[in-house]
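Students often ask why inverse folding is considered easier than folding. One informal answer: many sequences map to the same fold, so there is more than one right answer. In these notes we will look at a single instance of the problem. The structure comes first.
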């Protein structure tokens, strides 16, 4: 059994690869730049691009399981090559497909659902790894600035996403299923900042931005107005699915979903900075965040 993982160098793709390796599977990782892939020993790295289905033909040889993402290209645009990809997968003898899709229906998802290969949709509500967007501000200024700081999220650890995908790619009983994935708790921005402060052993200040300030910041980062309005709506009116805990991870993998505290402990160094004027004394003490 060989399993091809596309988007293999991404936040979730690497976790799918790692979990499949842990399970003893033969893994082939697809990337546009194999020289920079840096996968564990035993992972076969191949060059390919989902926007150019012809490049998948050699990568699909002997493959029985296929993990897909729904976007491609330099700007993460929705893939429009789904029909060709699905046809090539079926011709190659692929028996199981997982699709990672947290952004709603997509052309690739529709093509997979209309095809003849058994599919499973893996739909996380929010990555815990999104908190890394705060890392630079925390390292340099011990601060986070966000709008709607009381908004709720049932964010999920990316390793749990990879684990669910790995099960669906290697075991029967998951075809035709849509798996919404969350962590074990709902958290506000305040909760997340407190958790990160505890993990790194240093206080983090939280500043609440107004909607106007957030919009100005996002436009300054290059977002167009449509995206800015979407962000304001999602943050200000989080959909129920994004703030409701479900037990999918535990049902599929047989173990509880990881907590944000676990994620924060694993990534604490990303939120720490060495300071020339800091003796380090007391750094192990947990200081609550200012909110």
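Output (designed amino acids):
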């Amino acid at each position: 059994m060989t399993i091809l993982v596309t988007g293999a160098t991404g936040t979730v793709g690497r976790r799918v690869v790692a979990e499949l390796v842990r399970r003893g599977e033969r893994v082939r990782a697809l990337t546009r730049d194999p020289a920079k892939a840096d996968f564990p020993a035993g992972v076969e790295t191949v060059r390919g691009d989902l926007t150019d289905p012809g490049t998948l033909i050699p990568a699909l040889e002997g493959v029985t399981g296929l993990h897909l993402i729904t976007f491609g290209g330099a700007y993460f645009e929705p893939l429009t090559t789904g029909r060709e990809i699905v046809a090539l997968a079926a011709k190659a003898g692929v028996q199981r497909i997982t699709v990672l899709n947290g952004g709603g229906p997509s052309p690739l998802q529709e093509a997979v659902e209309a095809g003849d290969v058994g599919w499973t949709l893996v739909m996380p509500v929010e990555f815990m790894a999104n908190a890394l967007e705060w890392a630079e501000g925390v390292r340099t200024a011990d601060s986070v600035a966000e709008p709607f700081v009381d908004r709720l999220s049932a964010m999920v650890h990316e390793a749990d996403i990879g684990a669910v995908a790995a099960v669906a790619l290697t075991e029967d009983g998951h075809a035709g299923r849509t798996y919404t994935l969350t962590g074990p708790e709902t958290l506000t921005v305040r909760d997340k900042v407190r958790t990160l402060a505890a993990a790194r052993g240093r206080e983090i200040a939280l500043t609440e931005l107004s909607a106007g300030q957030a919009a100005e910041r996002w436009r300054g980062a290059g977002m167009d107005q449509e995206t800015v309005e979407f962000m304001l709506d999602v943050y200000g009116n989080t959909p129920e699915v994004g703030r409701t805990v479900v037990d999918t991870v535990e049902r599929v993998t047989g173990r509880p979903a990881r907590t944000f505290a676990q994620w924060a402990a694993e990534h604490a160094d990303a939120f720490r900075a060495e300071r020339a004027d800091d003796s380090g004394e007391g750094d192990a003490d947990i200081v609550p965040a200012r909110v």
